[in-house]
Amino acid sequence: MGGFGALHTGLAYPDTFGGILALSSAYIIHSIAGMKPEDVKEGALGNYAYYREVFGDLDKLEASDANPEVLYERLTKEKRNIPSIYMAVGTEDMLYANNQELRGFLEQHQADMKYEEGPGIHDWKFWNHYVRNGVEWLLERNGGI
Questions:
Q1: At 115, which helix (H) or strand (E)?
Q2: Which of 30, 73, 77, 129 is the least crowded, having the fewest Cβ atoms under 10 Å away?
Q3: Is 44 exposed, middle or buried (0-12, 13-18, 19+ CB in 10 A)?
Q4: How many domains are contained in the chain?
Q5: pTM for the complete prediction?
Q6: Which CATH number fits the domain that encloses residue 31?
Q7: Domain boundaries, position 97
Q8: How far, in Å, CA of 104 to CA of 23, rounded?
Q9: Spatial separation of the C-alpha atoms in residues 15 and 111, rounded to whole Å
Q10: What's the DSSP call for residue 63?
């Protein structure tokens, strides 16, 4: 599971997960919302059929449970526990700007989070370094193992 999947699953099942480790999240919700089959650009992570299969109706995506923002705001409104979130992304990662958008949302909502970035792209060389930082931080936040 990637960073987006970890984020989405952690917020969808907050009573199951004490923390979320989101590395280089494919947080593309706002980029693909409302997309039509002819809108897919060269270099995109997927095509219309893929996005539709994963996220459902793209015209309703931003307001749906497929959007971690919706899940986060619902948990806040219901005064439910929200897992701690560790995020990291490489400064040369193709998803860097998307992760900045997600970071801004979480900071605006005063999430219990830690954000880190450093040189790197969307690969294991970057993730191998930051996964350790994330696991250690989440264990500290949640009282160890």
A1: strand 113-118
A2: 77
A3: middle
A4: 1
A5: 0.90
A6: 3.40.50.1820
A7: 3-141
A8: 16
A9: 16
A10: G
